[in-house]
Amino acid sequence: MRDEEKDQRVRPSRLRPALGALSGVLAGFTALAVAEPVAAAVRPQSSPVIAVGGASIDATPATVKDWAIRHFGTDDKLVLQLGILAVLTVLALVLGGLAVRFRRCGAAGVLLFGAVGAAAAAGRPDSTGPADTLPSLVGALAGALLLYVLTGRLTTVTRPPGSEPEMVRDHGGAVPPTSEGWDRRGFVLVAASAAAVSAVVGEAGRSLNASRGRDAVASRDKVVLPRPGSPAAPVPTRAALRVPGISPFTTPNSSFYRVDTALVVPKVDATTWRLRVHGQGVRRTATYSFDDLLRRELIERDITLTCVSNEVGGPYVGNARWIGVRLADLLAECGVKPPSRGGPADQLVARSVDGMTIGSPVEDVMDGRDALLALGMNGEPLPLAHGFPVRMVVPGLYGFVSACKWIEDIELTTFDAYDPYWVKHGWARRAPIKTASRIDTPKPFARPNPGTVMVAGVAWAQHRGIDKVEVRVDDGPWQQAHLAAEDTRDTWRQWSFPWQATRGGHTLTVRATDRTGAVQTDRRTRTIPDGAGGWHSVVVTVD
User: Fold this and answer.
1) Which one, of 361, 337, 488, 475, lies nearest residue 429 by Cα?
2) Cβ partners under 8 Å of residue 152, min gap 6
3) Spacing of C-alpha 402 from chain mean position
């Protein structure tokens, strides 16, 4: 064949790069869509995006996690998932462009990313075995096949009218030529069909996942919390100040902060849930059902929780009324003794259904404080996002060393023998909550009028109690604020200070003193490794 005839027979189309990129995106979409029903059949956490997202969280340095929580709050997981999808889209575009010239290489690239997803799923702490790899592998196989077929339709050929078709080879195999230059009709038909089928398959998978969650929701709806054997005392009427802008004394469930690593909130059916207690010092391994806990004596307590990721003046602190089983009693029945009484275990490792591990000092859990296996929150069963059916609540300890949500396993061990999740990522083994205070009103950069301006907020030092709160205006002297009545030493206290505001810019600063006499430190520290330190200040301008 003459060179000019070859040039006429294989003539690249200007559309091929763009259509190749489109093919890559369709292949990626198909891979994720096909993975959905497979994940529904295996378990939702084996989905490629969730598995890769979880692995990304585990591999992220503690400082970056802290930055994400600080800037995105409870939306940090949504931002991560959107970021993963954005990266996958870019990679799909690149693989599509590569497949136009090297079909097999493009398809192999899709399979490679499927293998990455499979490895991430198999390596998760909550992995149930090889089945977790199936969603990523099956999805990648479907995506690779689609990319191979679509780019095959993009091989550009021309032939003289009336001539017999010949097989023209590209870098991935033989394809039949067409008189149109490339198989427009075949490409559009395959692309449109794949997009439609993938959308249906993906939606079916999401529906199946949702149906699995409906069992958990139904089991929660059926829960009737018994009257506690030891009810909480009524909150003193003067514990809540009537100051506009101050945080309510009891934080509503809908407003209570949530900080964890779960990309998808675990939905656990209370009827099948079990808690196992085992390890050093346990006479025999014990297993409890949800009904077993409901039949025990329940106690009700007001307890303020604080996240170690809470910056000075931050929002990750809230107060709620919890109802549950006294954890120390349950452990004692299993034969557990604290180290001070000769027990061999000094660490209680709580495991969540999503694989999270949280380590608490056994001594603190059994020293008489109201450490709970909580079943209810503010008069209703635990919300799904806050640990239904059961979570731990321990007054005086930051959540990352005490507040395991969706708990299913308690192991008694030692700090020397095991490092739980957050310790492996650079956080402290032991983390009592630091004395802290916050200005809720006026807000930063507010512009109040001259005269009496009510400065107010909350202060906390769980399990020690707040003894005094002071406010400073600019560089003036510290002045004592009015403290609301105390509910218990495990809850925060509201405070207020009537400031006689004068025109100009001013800095308002607050500090607290706990019942041990310790004054809140002015030394500004990061949240890592054991909680932020420093005084909270706001700048306002009086007009």
Assistant:
1) 361
2) 103, 170, 172, 173, 175
3) 16
pLDDT at 186: 86
Q: Are 459 and 241 in contact (CB under 8 A)?
A: no
pTM over 0.70: yes
Q: Phi, psi at residue 413, to the nearest 5°?
A: -150, -160
Please name which of 103, 205, 184, 90 lies closest in space to residue 145, comparing C-alpha atoms: 103
The C-alpha atoms of residue 312 and residue 318 are separated, in whole angstroms, by: 14
Angstrom distance (rounded) from CA 353 to CA 163 = 66
DSSP characters over 270-336: TTT-EEEEEETT-SS-EEEEHHHHHHSPPEEEEEEEE-TTPPTT-S-EEEEEEEEEEHHHHHHHTT-
Which residues of the chain are under the pLDDT cut of 70? 1-13, 62, 65-66, 69-71, 73-74, 77, 156-181
Sole residue written with tokens 């209703």: 380
Distance CA 482, CA 470 (A): 9
Structure tokens at 507: 């800095």
Residues 6+ apart with CB under 8 A from 427: 62, 308, 400, 528, 529, 530
Angle at which helix 134-152 crosses helix 103-122, to 10 degrees, equals: 170
